Amino acid sequence: MDETKKNPRSANESLIVVIITVLIFVLALSALKLPFFKSLILIVFCVAGMLVAERRGLMEQLFLLYIRHRKLACLICALCVLAVPMVLATDRYVAHIAVMAVIYAMVCLGLNFQMGSTNMVNFAPAAFMGIGAYSLAVITGKMGMSPWFGMLMAVIFCTIAGLVIGLPTLRTKGYYLSLVTMALQLAFTQLIKNIPYLGGPNGIAGVKTFDLFGLPLYKSYTVFGVKLVPQAPYLLFCLIILGVLIYIAMRVYLSRSGLALNAIAQDEVAADCLGIDVTRHKLFAFVIGSIFCGIGGALYAGLIGFVGPTDFTFARSLVFICMVILGGMDSVMGVVLGAFLLTVITEKLRDFSDYAQLVYALILIVMLIARPCGLLPKRVRNYCLLFNRDLKEVDNHAGSTD
Asked: Which one-letter DSSP state was computed for residue 229?
């Protein structure tokens, strides 16, 4: 007897998961493709609907539903991801916005390890993104080597940078840590401006894009009679990498390391008394966050084909911080949502770019006052549901071990 016959509600729940997942993708694509005012109105209504659903407890039920049918949800998400390049086949600009949103989501996932999980306010995510971007630019643009080797070197250099910078930096706490990372960001921008090998203020041009089995990922292809825009294959490539990073972030969040990071965020002294190696876990959060930022930076360089100091400034770091706060700190899907929303809002307000910093400040102030936990706040870990364990079984097992 299959699961549907055992549980009559299973079929209905599966249908709800499918409908909600498809609806989310339709709304996201609509926000990308609609004109200026219609897109903003749609975003406002969606955010308002989420807040109302959260107040009535519907979001919690929806999360539990997705956990219960996570395999089906992953399958539907994969099918929707494969359909995204086809839907955006005729619009270069919209496809470009979508790629940027995906890349920014990777950087914000890295920042979330520090800001969300460990409560370390890092003002230098753009610097680590720049390390990854310049690594790819030097390897491909200067040395003429493979972009895949450049991606590997970006990960290695970001790991080394995270270790070298993290070891002395993590001796500080609170506001002092924030000031150190702020100084690091400003120093990085000035450093790349004054190194001639890195192009100085002019940056590095001619960065090679990624290819797969000899086929460039930034190129227009015809699939089933539909001519795709050049960004479409690259968008699919970035979405797959984002899916892998989301999986890693979720695994860390649900692991003992994730619990240890949360304990450190609440009280370092109490965590130390519980036997948690505070320095090692904070360094882990700093390094893995740097790697995520470096991967996003390498993909950004492969997309644009050029890197320069103006791409990785302190203002860009502030944008990433706003994305994490907007979506919800220590919430993996919330961070992705925040990155998508703020990227779309920024692009839709490009005609008012002079007021971009004002918009970010207003969003930050409103969120901190009205909803400090973000649009999709973190949830209580439900290990019994995740691992298909019954609570009574867990209690019996704990009693037998005692």
From this structure: P
